[in-house]
Amino acid sequence: MKKTLVLLLSVLVLASCTRNELGKSARTAKKLQTDLYCMTVNGSVGFEAFIDAGGASSAEEVSAYLGDYLSAGPFGKLETKVSTGEFGCSALKIGHNTGGFLVGRNYDWDDCTTLIIRNIPSNGYASLSTVNLDFLGFGDGYKPEGMVNAFKAVVGVYVPMDGINEKGLVVADLMAGDDEVTNQNTSKKDLTTTTAMRLILNTAANVDEALEILRNYDMHSDIGTAHHLFLADAEGKSVAVEWVSGEIKVTESDVLNNHYLCEEKAGTASGELSFVHESKLLEARNRSKGKMSSEELADAMFEVIALPDGNYFGGTQWTIVYDCSQASATWYFRRDRATSYTFFAGSDIQEFNSK
């Protein structure tokens, strides 16, 4: 660890920012169904200052920063303990049958409280992202209901599991297949897995710009296991980003599951189910000749859902179909194919309402 993150903003500045940004954002929290919420966050929630201060090389440093940030608000001392669990996932990029590109994404884990965040940063691209609120460490039974709890949830901006920005760039976090922890240690600023995803959503317009960001920061795994990222953009480029022995590895691919794709570790997996899901997704892509409608992609992703009696007691928590051309995302929660919520990332959208 290169340093201990220190808060550079004064208490008065933080308090003013917190009241304005967090308070207004907290009032937008809305329950969509049991354990699923949405919220609009206007402003950067201290993220630019976080990056300027050098970022963070661990979840503990992120927690320290966010605890100070929240405590500068009107509710007194509020602490958070950011962490992530080991989860299984699937992702597939494919052409849209009317033009452009789609990305499907499954997130497999235990039952959790989930928040869809539409963030419009002060300087950067508007985005949509999904947050597992259990990873914020606010305690058992926490829900973003009531002013104080909704106020806390705003810092979920720092812990996205996946998302799309208004340029149509998609990023998703998946387990890579072993326990190698990425902990780069140079003179560069630091990012954890989730804060790297937030920086990408805020500042990258395409895959190449996202890769430039990842190469210009030291990466640190959020938990004691290996992560890889799936990146896809509106021009149809998609890659898997992995780290081996501290070096970044980029592999062009339309699909990603829970095994490595880079040459150095190709096939190293967390289990055979990863290969089964990959095979099914590739079969679906080939049957469709590389083009699908949004509904067809949702069907394909539902073919590779994890059930509650599998490795993850809750099974697939959410399935998303991203439309890179529209900068939109459609969520299906806990394997319910009949109910969906579609939102748009653009900063020109006035209301955060489901279609």
Structure description:
It is a single chain. Helix 5 crosses helix 6 (207-215). The chain starts with 10 loop residues before the first helix and ends in an 11-residue tail after the last strand. It has helices spanning 11-26, 47-52, 59-71, 147-153, 193-203, 207-215, 272-287, 294-302, and strands spanning 30-33, 36-42, 88-96, 101-108, 114-120, 127-132, 162-165, 170-175, 190-192, 218-220, 227-232, 238-244, 247-252, 255-256, 291-292, 316-323, 328-333, 341-344. The protein contains 8 helices and 18 strands. It is globular. The protein is an alpha+beta fold and 355 residues long. 53% of the residues are buried. The strands form 3 sheets. Strands 1-2-5-6-7-8-11-12-13 form a 9-stranded mixed beta sheet. Strands 3, 4, 14, 15, 16, 17 and 18 form a 7-stranded mixed beta sheet that branches.
Average the pLDDT over all residues and give the rounded result: 90
Biggest beta sheet attributes: 9 strands, mixed
Poorly predicted parts: 1-18
What is the number of helices? 8
- Sheet with the most strands: spatial strand order: 1-2-5-6-7-8-11-12-13
In percent, how helical is the residue content? 10-25%
Strand content: 25-35%
Instruction: Name the shape in a single word.
Output: globular
Oligomer: single chain
Radius of gyration, rounded?
19 Å
Q: How far apart lie the N and C ends? A: 45 Å
Helix and strand content put the structural class at: alpha+beta
Strand tally: 18
**Order of helix and strand elements from N to C terminus:** HEEHHEEEEHEEEHHEEEEEHEHEEE
